[in-house]
Structures are given as structure tokens and as C-alpha cells.
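HUMAN: Would you supply a protein with C-alpha cells?

ASSISTANT:
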Amino acid sequence: MGSIEGRVGGSFDGFDVSVTVEDGGTSISGRIGGVFRGGDIKLHINQDQIEGRLGGMLHGQSLSGEFGKESFAGRIGGGVLGKEIWLMHTNNQIEGRVGGESLGFSCLLYYDAALETLTGRLGGEVIGHSVELKVSGASPLLAALLAVLTYHYHQFSSRSNAAPHQ
């Protein structure tokens, strides 16, 4: 069993990440955010395919995608309001993009295998969030995916904060 824990964003405007990886890395479950402003996460990996849900049935989004040897390509949300996710892992660096050039955000993260940490930045230097995750028994690419999902969900729930959070 593995885990991915830490924070995306600062102490006032960020989300905690607390996720367990079970069944040989095929089942991922946990929570991002807090009790009142956050969401459950349940993902299932079958071969290279990943599917699951972030948030509740009413206020949440589906995820589907595929892991390559050192990459991930997928989509969070529906066909109209969703966003594409692209991540590439090279050496100790994971970079990528969520969404388009105008309405998306960039990903630049670094994995330290000796410390089992994933750190870096999502979004820009001014309007973005820092990432500090402890990764144990899970791939750095999966941890990066959870980081971008957390930042995406933070943006998603901030835009629709009148809706109940699950």
C-alpha cells in the first residue's frame, strides 16, 4: 500500500492531499481539500487506463486517461466544460498542461527519489500554487496527476462556490 500526502497551495488558499494507493497501484482513494471545501477522489487503474471521479455526484467531475511509459494524457470533466491533461516525466522533472493556452495552467514539478517528495509549481509564478507532496509506494507521474487534479478542483470549486461540496 502506498500514499500521497501533502499540500497544493499555501496555508490559507490551498488544499490538503491525503490519498492511499492500494491493490498493487490499481485503486486510488482519499480526499483533497478540507471537510467543508474539498472533495473525495476515487480512481481505478486497469493496465494503462485510468478512470474515476473527483468530488461528489452533483458537484464533481469524471476523469479518464491513459498512462504511457513516461507520460499521461487524459481529460477531467465533460466534453464541453472539461479540460485536457498532458504530463511528461523526464528524469526527475514532470511538466505539462491542463486545459488550453488561454484558460489552462502549466505544471512544473520535481521528484526527489531519495526524499520521496514531489515539489514545484502549478500555474504561473504570481497566480499559481506551490506543490509539496510526500510520495510513498506510488509513481511520481501518478502523484503529479493528483497534484494537477487538486489544483484544478481548487479552481473548479472556487468558481462554483455556491454549490454544495462533497
About this structure: Residues 162-166 have pLDDT under 50 and may be disordered.
